[in-house]
Amino acid sequence: MLTTDPNDPRLGWGPGDEKPVPQNDVYLVLSEEERAKGFVRPVRRSYIHKTCGAVTTMGLALCETYARNPKFYGSTYCTTCQMHKPVGEFTWSEDGAVVGS
Ligand SMILES: [Zn+2]
Predict the structure, then answer these.
(1) Do β-strands 83-86 and 75-78 pair in parallel, antiparallel, or remain unpaired?
(2) Using 50, 70 and 90 to split pLDDT, how confident is the model at 93?
């Protein structure tokens, strides 16, 4: 589930997880209006966790939020480790760029 409200009480924040957890119930994304202002990075659909080598694919709204504002998220989820980890541990599978850069 997605929200554009940064004050949504269901949002989970933090630098990362130390043990496996389910994905959050709700993730914050930029509004459609904000995303429509233009992307500063390509829209990339999946990233590789450097620690485990596995690929995680995201929904389009999350990908477009990264493309609009690459620094929007401090951590992101690896579906193989089942943990949120700092974005610097991930590279985009499409072009090898570090997530968040
Ligand atoms: Zn991983």
Answers:
(1) antiparallel
(2) very high
